[in-house]
Design brief:
alpha+beta, Sortase, Chain: A, 2 domains, 8-stranded mixed barrel
């Protein structure tokens, strides 16, 4: 194997024979290679950041289940876990965060604070982005089961009753509707990358809880659980 001195001499010889056009081509190739490395590095960074965020969210959710009032996943977070959503048929689940701020929805579905908590009377609204945490909504159909686990450990079961497309300014969702309801909301259409005025809504109604599971919270009974 040639020594470093020989390699340097060889490189100098090659570089001295490059024409102006060849220098330009070599520079372009180098720039493309560096850009590719940067892109790969950036993609890996984003994936690593998302994976770390999920670990921190799961840890915060476990603290919530243990009784912490508003456990932030990281010190500067403006949100915290309030529930967990699961769609058994699709094997999908996600930690639901408090509010629908940009930070909250960057890392998971967010609960609209102007609506009841999932499992309480009325319609609870949960929103998430169509290309990440609620991408699976396009595969949810009428009759599917959705479960919500509250931070008290209570399990609320819902059944999908309808899917519809609505303008964001007139969703028709009534937070004070009778019964126990759930509305999952994301942007529409799913294959678009541009913001638009339409929203995709999955509506579900509460189902009787399995006697083997904790009963839904209904007013004062919630004090029995370590909220």
């Amino acid at each position: 194997m040639p020594g470093r001195g020989v390699v340097r001499l060889l490189l100098r010889h090659i570089m001295s024979r490059l024409s102006g056009l060849e220098w330009l081509v070599a520079g372009a190739i180098t720039a493309i290679a560096l850009f590719g490395i940067w892109q790969i590095g950036g993609g890996l960074y984003i994936k690593a950041k998302a994976a770390l965020a999920q670990v921190l969210l799961d840890a915060a959710w476990n603290r919530a289940l243990a009784g912490a009032a508003a456990p932030k996943p990281w010190p500067w977070a403006d949100t915290w876990p309030v529930a967990k959503i699961t769609v058994p048929k699709l094997k999908k689940s996600a930690v639901i965060l408090s509010g629908v701020s940009g930070e909250a929805m960057a890392f998971g579905p967010g609960h609209h604070l102007q609506t009841p908590r999932p499992g309480r009377p009325g319609t609870s609204v949960i929103a998430a982005h169509r290309d990440t945490h609620f991408a699976f909504l396009q595969h949810v159909v009428v009759g599917d089961q959705i479960t919500i686990t509250s931070r008290s450990g209570q399990i609320h079961s819902f059944q999908v009753t309808a899917t519809r497309i609505v303008p964001w300014s007139s969703s028709g969702i009534n937070p004070d509707a009778p019964g126990t309801n759930l509305a999952l909301v994301t942007c529409w259409p799913f294959d678009s990358t541009e913001p638009g005025p339409l929203r995709y809504v999955v509506e579900a109604e509460g189902r009787p809880t399995d006697p083997a599971l904790p009963k839904p919270d209904d007013g004062p009974a919630i004090s029995l659980w370590p909220l």
